[in-house]
Amino acid sequence: MFLMISFDTIQEAHDRIRPYIHRTAVLTNQTINERAGAEIFFKCENFQKIGAFKARGGLNAVLQVVQHKEGKAITTHSSGNHAQAVAFAARQVGMPAYIVMPRTAPKVKKDAVLGYGADVIECEPTLEAREAGVREVIERTGAVLVHPFDDDRVIAGQATAAKELIEDAGIERMFDVIMAPVGGGGLLSGTALTTHYLSPKTRIVAGEPEGAADAILSFRSGRVEKAPYINTIADGLMTSLSERTLAIIRAHVADILTVSDAEISAAMKLVWERMKIIIEPSSAVPLAAVLKHKEQFAGQKVGIILTGGNVDLGKLPF
C-alpha cells in the first residue's frame, strides 16, 4: 500500500516550487461554453515554464533530491514534457540531467531538452526500452531517477495546478467537475487528491484517447492493464498507469471518458480559434470529452487543466 499524500504535503510542494513557476491564468470562453452547454474554466498550464504543468512535479522532486543530498545527477524517461521539466529543474539547481527519450518524440520537445543543457539518450518507443535506458544511465552515472508519474514527490507537485485552479476560480461557487487528461496518471492523481481535500463534493473525471486506452481498463478491473493498441495524436498520453497512480485514481476519480483522434483534433482547433491560445493534442482531450458527452456536464461548472502547449508545428492535426 502506498503512503497517502496529505494536503500538507501538497501545500509544502507549492511553497517549495513557487519561486520557480508561474501561477498560470484561468480563462473562460463564451463560445466554448455555449457549444458545451456548461461553464468551463481552463487552467492554462500551456503558459507554464517549459510550456506544461510537468514543471511543477519535476521541480518538486529535483529540489528535494538536492535538499536531501540524494545524488549529483538526475535521470528520467519521457516522450517530452516531463523530459523538459526535469532538464529545466536540473538546470535551476546546477545538476547534470540525462534524459532517455523515444526516437519518435516530437522534435520540438527534444530540442527544448537539449536547450536546457541536458543530455538526450534516444531509445525505441516502448516502455521497456525507456526503462532499460534509464537503468544504463544510473549504472554509468549514479544519477537519481525522477519518474514521470510513479513518484509521490512528482504527484504532489502536479497537485498544485488544481490547488491554484480551486483557489482562483472555485471559492465563491465550487466546481461541479474538475477534469484532466490521463496518461501515466501523475496529474490525474494529484488533481484528484487536491480536489478531495479542498472541494470534496466535486467530481473528478478524466479524458483518455481511444488510441491509448489503458487507464479506463485499469480503472474498471483494478489492476494495471495495457492499452489494446497505441495510436493517437495525443503523444503525451501514451503511458500506462502505475500501481501507485491506479490506487489513487480508483479511490478518488468518478469516471474516465475516451475520445477519438478526430474529436481531440476538433477540440484543439476550437481552442486555437476561439481562445487564441496554443495547446497540444493531449491538452484538448478533456474538452473533447465534454463536447462528446454534453449531457453529463449540462449546466455545470467545470474546471479543465490545459496541460501544455508544446506542439510540433510541422505536424498539426488540422
TrEMBL record:
Coiled coil: none annotated. Its cofactor is pyridoxal 5'-phosphate. Pfam families: PALP. The keyword Lyase applies. Keywords: Lyase, Pyridoxal phosphate. Residues 18-308 form the Tryptophan synthase beta chain-like PALP domain. The keyword Endoplasmic reticulum does not apply. GO terms for molecular function: ATP binding; D-serine ammonia-lyase activity; L-serine ammonia-lyase activity; magnesium ion binding; pyridoxal phosphate binding; serine racemase activity; threonine racemase activity. GO terms for biological process: D-serine biosynthetic process. Belongs to the serine/threonine dehydratase family. This is Threonine dehydratase. It comes from Spirosoma endophyticum. The lineage of its organism: Bacteria, Pseudomonadati, Bacteroidota, Cytophagia, Cytophagales.
